[in-house]
Design goal:
Length: about 375
């Protein structure tokens, strides 16, 4: 059964822990200063699961979303709904609207190039792809860097002046379908890659990362930030200026992060798969335990345990200058949102995607900026 149609409690494991320690120990952390407003969002349903990333074209139309069956869909408004725009693989015969089929591809991070109107797509199986403004079948851009295959392209961003595409390769062992294994195994083979669109050279600028998930370029293009889902760290990698080639921890995040999007003012929205809780802390602090549960439990059970038995939603806004957390928004009960993957602020609205659910959500920013 697809995760989007399942609320997993992992009953046996949870009941044992609750018996000995009480139910509160497994629940997600309570975040002080958080605004509980995400449940007020409007839901836009999709005919397919997993609008993991979203993007708007040069005319402001969209959003465009990459979904689980390998397609890129475009939102045409309430009357026209969702229409097909592109796909990353020519193999469409056995693609599923609920489950990942590797031969169909799995589009993740989406980025439009302002110069050309091309849409760059990080596909969790096929590498970095691109498709022209008219859509259709995407073509391969890069699937190797410094002699190693790009196995799990995740999210990227473009330096338009330098014609450079920065992107995450989250693992050289696991693909998208094994995302929780990357998370729990302690795998530190994640890389940040700088791809020169002119010379076609792909160079690693940071490596040994534990499931680096989201990535975004700063407004002045002097640094790239990337987040590790396995550690909750947001790293800053300097790509211009006197610190070029160095990196540092930009901030520590209150959960397990997914995608990152820069705002018009230069700050960053970070979406979280879930907040921190007992089971992921246990799994991540003891690699042998993490490896054991990977082998013994189904992915649906792992999803339930890592979310504290209660799927929920959280996004934070991080200062682009200091790394300070400026806003924290939640749907702590999962009433409207759950399993979210990206938050994108545009024209007074916050658009939110999901890695598993057949839904996209939109919230007026006045709801939280005035509180």
């Amino acid at each position: 059964m697809p995760i989007s149609q399942t609320v997993v409690a992992a009953p046996v494991i949870l009941s044992v822990v609750i018996y000995f320690y009480g139910s509160s120990i497994i629940q997600p952390d309570t975040i002080k200063g958080s605004k509980h407003v995400l449940q007020l969002s409007k839901t836009i349903p999709l005919p397919v699961d997993g609008p993991e990333s979203l993007e708007f074209d040069l005319q402001g139309e969209g959003p465009y979303v990459g979904v689980i069956d390998g397609r890129i869909l475009k939102w045409r408004g309430e009357q026209l709904g969702w229409v097909d725009f592109a796909h990353t693989s020519p193999h469409r015969g056995n693609c599923s609207i609920h489950d990942v089929v590797p031969s169909c591809g799995r589009p993740l991070g989406l980025t439009f190039a302002k110069k050309t109107g091309d849409l760059y797509i990080c596909d969790g199986y096929l590498g970095v792809m691109k498709v022209g403004p008219e859509g259709g079948l995407a073509k391969l851009v890069v699937n190797e860097a410094e002699g190693r295959k790009v196995t799990f392209a995740n999210q990227g961003d473009i330096d338009e002046e330098e014609d450079v595409f920065y992107f995450n390769d989250s693992s050289d062992k696991y693909h998208f379908r094994d995302v929780f294994y990357v998370f729990l195994s302690g795998d530190t083979m994640g890389r940040v890659i700088r791809y020169n669109m002119k010379t076609k050279e792909a160079k690693v600028i940071m490596d040994k990362l534990h499931f680096n998930n989201g990535l975004a370029l700063s407004k002045d293009r002097s640094f790239v930030i990337t987040c590790e889902a396995g550690t909750g760290l947001l790293h800053r990698i300097w790509v211009k200026g006197p610190k070029t080639g160095t990196n540092e921890v930009f901030t520590r995040l209150p959960g397990y992060p997914d995608n990152i999007r820069r705002t018009e003012t230069g700050d960053f929205w970070v979406a979280f798969h879930c907040k921190k809780s007992f089971f992921p802390r246990l799994f991540l602090s003891h690699p042998l335990v993490g490896s054991f549960v990977m082998k013994m439990l189904k992915i649906e059970t792992l999803v339930g345990l890592t979310s504290g038995g209660k799927p929920h939603a959280m996004v934070v806004k991080v200062s682009g200058e200091t790394g300070e957390i400026l806003e924290m928004l939640e749907d702590s009960e999962g009433k409207t949102m759950k399993f979210i993957s990206e938050a994108y602020e545009k024209d007074g609205k916050l658009w939110v995607g999901s890695v598993y659910m057949p839904s996209l959500w939109v919230l007026d920013t006045s709801v939280f900026y005035r509180k």
